[in-house]
Amino acid sequence: MTGWSDGGKKKAKLPPKYAASRSRKVAAGHADEPVCMYFGSKATHCRASDYSDGSFLDAMSSWLSRFLGFHTTPHSMDTILPFVFLGNDHAASDLTGLRKAGITHVCNVAAQCDIHFPNDFHYLHLRLLDNPTQQLAKHLQAASEFIHRAKHADGRVLVHCVAGVSRSACVVVAYLLEHCMMPLVQAYAYVKRKRPVMCPSTAFRMQLALYEVAFPSLAMPWCAHFWSVQIALFESSSVLSSHDPDWDFYELNMYRQAKLGRRR
In whole angstroms, what separates CA 94 from the centre of its chain? Predict the structure, then answer.
């Protein structure tokens, strides 16, 4: 990071420690003034309050993916299966693009995204927030069934949220778990290969891990009911033995430690 400019102040080179601290404050919503981030000669402006429900990180992930040169563009959607597409709200608002892709159904899983073309497509709108307390797991079955019905109707589904990196990505992974019989570690890696900008939050990844071993009964957020699924059941999770860094985080490691303790 070359520097920050807050509220129109002159750009200045800041110490890395300050810049990182400022990034965390803005991402957490503690700083609301307009912020301009500079990467080389490129800049972007944002205000945390413009994203009141946690989608700030979604939007920043989308911008960073474009800056870093990923193939996904603001208006793109990626083909996951011949009848399943994963994208963002820009793609969902592009009528020409939707028709060109043969989309017949749209699964909107973002609370702040509107239904753009109610007379043109079949919709499922799950008003989910991108924050750690969101009970994502209890909605995954409904979304999976919607996708499955579209398949049997010879339709095509766009699953989207704001940026197409967290909520909607988890829905597509859950569909592969439930209807394609993939283990979570395989389903997650498959979707990430198809859409490299995919980056679900730690909370949502943990809920996916619980969902793999407990669906369809899981309905509680992991953060409030951490031990609600018995360790003996969770031992069957495909991600416990994964070396993918996406599955290396504190909450899941607690289960790994418990699993090792049971074997001693």
Answer: 21
Catalytically active residues, by annotation: 161
pTM here?
A: 0.67
Provide mean pLDDT across the span 76-84. 95
Tens digits of residue pLDDT in 128-149: 999 988 999 889 999 999 999 9
CB neighbours (10 Å) of residue 258?
14
User: What whole-number distance in Å separates Cα of residue 230 and Cα of residue 63?
Assistant: 40
Q: Give the integer Cα–Cα distance in Å for 213 and 235.
A: 9
Q: Where are the beta strands (DSSP E) in the chain?
A: 3-6, 35-39, 42-46, 77-81, 84-87, 105-108, 122-125, 157-160
Give pLDDT tens digits for 34-74.
Answer: 444 444 444 444 444 444 444 555 555 555 555 555 544 54
Retrieve residue 115's tokens. 């239904």
Is the domain spanning 73-219 CATH 3.90.1150.10? The answer is no
Quick one: tokens of 54?
A: 């946690």
- Across 189-215, b (16+ Cβ under 10 Å) vs e yields bbbbebbebbbbbebbbbbbbbbbbbb
Neighbours of 66 (CB within 10 A): 15
Q: Which two tokens stand for residue 193?
A: 């290969």
Give the sheet arrangement for strand 42-46, strand by strand.
Answer: 3-6, 35-39, 42-46
The dihedrals phi and psi of 164, each to the nearest 5 degrees, come to 70, 35
Separation between Cα atoms, residue 27 and residue 166, nearest integer Å: 15
Pairwise pLDDT comparison (45 vs 191), residue with the higher score: 191
Residue 244: which residues within 8 A CB-CB, separation 6 or more? 185, 188, 189
